[in-house]
């Protein structure tokens, strides 16, 4: 009992966030969108609400004209599991998924008019899960076939987050070719990283579906999804089990992980610390009585002004009014400095050349 | 122990909860909800379903601090109050309404996202409010409306007059933008459904399931907010929020042989109960006979009543199912309206709508092109005017001197033209014309353009897909076949009170043409990399060679004694009598 109580207070976070990014465009990269949506589904199922998830999908697969079953994205062949679901909320869509927007979301340097659902409003007691998938190489990840993010930029972004106290602990998962190169350069504390393949290896896709015509998932995320389907909000599975997911016999590539920057032992870190959501509930025994008098609230309505004559609707196509709409009178502006200077120069040259006696012909 | 305490607290809250409600039930509610579904079979065998959810709030959102929101969603109410919005119309559409084959739509929207807003005269900086509004709406509806900026916003001068109460129409308070590339999917439907008072759990909204709605030829969801008359005397203002969703189910996509339709076949579910917050909940089925002959369509179960109305200038008959009447759910717990054709349809019976239009791109190559619009007036003897609004992005440089409007072989001069040329990277082209369409004619409007070469950083990640030109808008007062009487808005169905009617002899219709997809000349994006490699190689080879020639010094090298192998070889050669190496 003592151990359980201790464990309840061991992790120092009070809220959970997730940033899930799919960086690939075009129909044949269906599996990257399915990867991201399966992590989204697990994270929602384990308790993180939509307001705490920033989902970035670089292309639309569900309503793509090539999708034979619209509004669905499947992860298992024979259409067993629709990871798109019925209440998905995508925050960054299509052309909005760029390296700049991703780094702005992480570091919090967002233009002031950005709505709340597009911001990562984490604090120093937040555990953040960052999942990225797409096409990558040794030291970079490709965004939408037109730009890349390097491992150095990513490490610097995490350092900015650390210095601005934007996370308590961070779990970084990446499923691309040569994924381990992306976490090589991290230097900020409290980061744990997992990748689907080592440097020099490719991450492979799992199974194609002949009805849809593309590969549905990548191998690493497929086995991670199967692992996560067994987790429920109260499970005690720890990170060491996640490191064992997808050995080389199933994945063909060798998944890697990095825990040297993390302060706690992975044995003591629960999966739900990052994939689930903390709800610290305080039980109270005192009673609250709600205000029964709603009339007081309603009477605060200011008295409305009643018009003296009836208001009317506008005419939808007032032909006479439109035809007689006078064009705006163009105000006469005095000629600008350049024009004046040019004419002054021309006149000076003329009189210097031909002499002053021509003045009387001008005026 | 902890669980029991939590349960106790929850019970106490629940006990305290209904208290204020009970005290309130005797007083008049200030907001009402009406919901309605209209099923109209289309001439081609498809069926169109239009949902309308109307929340009317008898309060003035503009003045006073309103803090108690009941049916009217708080997100939209606060938006209207904070940004000084008088009217807001946002539509997200996937597909295209084929007016020529399907008839006039009740309310059409262009493909992609369309947003037009009238602001209150008290707003000083309309552009700033417009930018903030599009950002907030992009967060609410999960759409990329934040891409609306000055490069795709226009200020129409003659179209888009306010649909609600207005005392003055200064068009500088109006902004219109369309994003033709916008995709509509479940993530846009989810927040739209969350704005409904009953959500998607009760009433007509249980039919709205994404998997069926997006497997269709046309899906359009819209939000309209406007001030309306509170009653017939129209001395006070109420705010109305209409959420409309139109979907056309394709006969061929459904894969069945027969053209019969039912709610279950369309939505894969049936109606089971009503939304307890709705004061009216009805299903209308269009059973109007074509060509004034006997009925073509049979509906089952038998409707609660039959309603006749003049809609879009024509007399139409509707079978009405009132979900609030107790007799409807007496026999069975669910209502599955079925439509069966009594006799097979003849393709020659397809009526042609009075006004329809078409637009396409002409020309060849990647330098020039031509936008052609064809407008058809099929009325046998009446002519009427139409306003055409075209918004063309700046990278298609229009040549207005090539604008020609030809009707029946002769030139047709418009009575009003407003043209605002584009500014590169700042403003699009705006062309508005008021054209008189003679009876039974085709009008062809052509304008030539030249394609611009963008800077290489301005291309989107998939430039070979092409660039979209938004739909053009046609607003017209079409003469009605039957005169329309002035009806009370509260008693008539919602689909008849979309546009305020002025006189019964004509009805207002707004049509959209197809969006266009043009290819711009795109560079080879691998060229910067190629150029850098080539230049570096050339520089390295030339400069390196010169440097070597200029700075290399030569010196004589002592011949080495040779390694072990050479010495052994020399020993063998000495034995052979051959000169050493």
Automatic annotation (TrEMBL), chain A:
One of its GO terms (biological process) is GPI anchor biosynthetic process. The chain crosses the membrane at residues 332-351. One of its GO terms (cellular component) is GPI-anchor transamidase complex. Pathway: Glycolipid biosynthesis; glycosylphosphatidylinositol-anchor biosynthesis. InterPro entries: GPI_transamidase, Peptidase_C13. GO terms for molecular function: GPI-anchor transamidase activity. This is GPI-anchor transamidase. It comes from Bombycilla garrulus (Bohemian waxwing).
From TrEMBL, chain B:
It comes from the Eukaryota. The keyword Ribosomal protein does not apply. One of its GO terms (cellular component) is GPI-anchor transamidase complex. Pfam families: Gpi16 (PF04113). The keyword Signal applies. Keywords: Signal. InterPro entries: PIG-T. GO terms for biological process: attachment of GPI anchor to protein. Residues 1-23 form the signal peptide. This is PIGT transamidase. It comes from Bombycilla garrulus (Bohemian waxwing).
């Amino acid at each position: 009992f003592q151990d359980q109580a201790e464990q309840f207070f061991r992790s120092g976070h009070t809220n959970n966030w997730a940033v899930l990014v799919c960086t690939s465009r075009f129909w044949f990269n269906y599996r990257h969108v399915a990867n991201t949506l399966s992590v989204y589904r697990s994270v929602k199922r384990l308790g993180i609400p939509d307001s705490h998830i920033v989902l970035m999908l670089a292309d639309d697969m569900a309503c793509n004209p090539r999708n034979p079953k619209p509004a669905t994205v499947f992860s298992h062949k024979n259409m067993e599991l629709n990871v798109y679901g019925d209440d998905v909320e995508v925050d960054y869509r299509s052309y909005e998924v760029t390296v700049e927007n991703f780094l702005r979301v992480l570091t919090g340097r967002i233009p002031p008019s950005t709505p709340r659902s597009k911001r990562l409003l984490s604090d120093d007691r937040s555990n953040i899960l960052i999942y990225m998938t797409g096409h990558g190489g040794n030291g970079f990840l490709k965004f939408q076939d037109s730009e890349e993010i390097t491992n150095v930029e990513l490490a610097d972004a995490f350092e900015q987050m650390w210095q601005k106290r934007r996370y308590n602990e961070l779990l970084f998962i990446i499923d691309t070719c040569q994924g381990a190169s992306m976490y090589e350069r991290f230097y900020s504390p409290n980061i744990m990283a997992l990748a689907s393949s080592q440097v020099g290896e490719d991450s492979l896709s799992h199974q194609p579906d002949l009805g849809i015509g593309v590969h549905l998932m990548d191998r690493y995320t497929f086995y991670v999804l199967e692992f996560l389907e067994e987790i429920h909000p109260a499970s005690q599975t720890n990170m060491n089990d996640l490191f064992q997911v997808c050995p080389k016999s199933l994945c063909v590539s060798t998944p890697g992980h990095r825990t040297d920057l993390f302060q706690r032992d992975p044995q003591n870190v629960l999966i739900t610390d990052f994939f689930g959501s903390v709800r610290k509930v305080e039980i109270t025994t005192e009673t609250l009585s709600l205000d029964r008098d709603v009339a007081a609230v309603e009477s605060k309505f200011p008295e409305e002004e009643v018009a003296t004559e009836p208001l009317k609707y506008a005419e939808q196509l007032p032909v006479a009014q439109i035809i007689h709409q006078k064009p705006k009178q163009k105000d006469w502006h005095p000629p600008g400095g350049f024009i004046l200077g040019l004419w002054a120069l021309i006149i000076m040259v003329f009189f210097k050349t031909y002499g002053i006696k021509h003045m009387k012909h001008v005026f | 122990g902890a669980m029991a305490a939590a349960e106790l607290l929850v019970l106490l809250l629940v006990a305290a909860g209904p208290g204020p409600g009970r005290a309130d039930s005797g007083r008049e509610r200030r907001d009402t909800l009406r919901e309605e579904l209209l099923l109209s079979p289309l001439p081609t065998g498809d069926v169109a379903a239009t949902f309308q959810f109307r929340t009317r709030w008898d309060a003035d959102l503009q003045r006073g601090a309103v803090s108690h929101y009941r049916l009217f969603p708080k997100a939209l109410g606060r938006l209207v109050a904070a940004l000084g919005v008088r009217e807001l119309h946002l539509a997200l559409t996937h597909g295209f309404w084929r007016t020529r084959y399907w008839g006039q739509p009740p309310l059409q929207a262009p493909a992609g996202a369309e947003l037009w807003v009238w602001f209150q005269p008290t707003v000083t900086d309309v552009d700033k409010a417009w930018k903030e509004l599009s950002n907030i709406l992009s967060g609410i509806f999960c759409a990329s409306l934040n891409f609306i900026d000055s490069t795709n916003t226009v200020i129409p001068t003659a179209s888009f007059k306010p649909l609600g109460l207005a005392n003055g129409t200064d068009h500088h308070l109006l902004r219109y933008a369309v994003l033709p590339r916008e995709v509509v999917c479940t993530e846009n439907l989810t927040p739209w459904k969350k704005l409904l008072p009953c959500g998607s759990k009760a009433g007509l909204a249980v039919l709205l399931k994404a998997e069926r709605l997006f497997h269709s030829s046309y899906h359009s969801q819209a939000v309209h907010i406007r001030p309306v008359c509170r009653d017939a005397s129209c001395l006070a203002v109420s705010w109305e929020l209409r959420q409309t969703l139109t979907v056309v189910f394709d006969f061929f996509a459904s894969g069945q042989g027969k053209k019969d339709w039912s709610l279950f076949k369309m939505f894969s579910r049936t109606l089971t109960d009503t939304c307890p917050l709705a004061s009216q909940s009805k299903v209308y089925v269009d059973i109007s006979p074509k060509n004034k002959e006997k009925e073509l369509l049979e509906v089952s179960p038998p409707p609660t009543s039959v309603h006749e109305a003049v809609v879009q200038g024509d007399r139409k008959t509707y079978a009405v199912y009132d979900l609030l009447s107790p007799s409807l759910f007496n026999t069975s717990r669910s209502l599955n309206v079925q439509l069966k054709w009594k006799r097979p349809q003849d393709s020659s019976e397809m009526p042609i709508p009075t006004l329809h239009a078409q637009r396409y791109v002409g020309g060849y190559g990647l330098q020039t092109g031509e936008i052609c619009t064809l407008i058809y007036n099929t009325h046998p003897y009446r002519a009427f005017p139409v306003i055409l609004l075209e918004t063309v992005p700046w990278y298609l440089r229009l040549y207005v001197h090539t604008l020609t409007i030809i009707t029946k072989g002769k030139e047709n001069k418009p009575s009003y033209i407003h043209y605002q040329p584009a500014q590169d990277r700042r403003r699009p082209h705006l062309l508005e014309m008021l054209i008189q369409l003679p009876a039974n004619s085709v009008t062809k409007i052509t304008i030539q353009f030249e394609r611009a070469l963008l800077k290489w950083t301005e291309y989107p990640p998939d430039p070979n897909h092409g660039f979209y030109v938004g739909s053009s808008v046609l607003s017209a007062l079409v003469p009605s076949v039957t005169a329309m009487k002035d009806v009370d808005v509260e008693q008539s169905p919602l689909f008849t009170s979309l546009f305020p009617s002025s006189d019964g002899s004509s009805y207002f219709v707004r049509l959209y043409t197809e969006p266009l997809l043009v290819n711009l000349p795109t560079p080879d994006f691998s060229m910067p990399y190629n150029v850098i490699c080539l230049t570096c190689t050339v520089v390295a080879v030339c400069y390196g060679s010169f440097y070597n020639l200029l700075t290399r010094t030569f010196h004589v090298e002592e011949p080495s004694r040779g390694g072990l192998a050479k010495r052994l070889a020399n020993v063998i050669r000495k034995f052979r009598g051959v000169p050493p190496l």
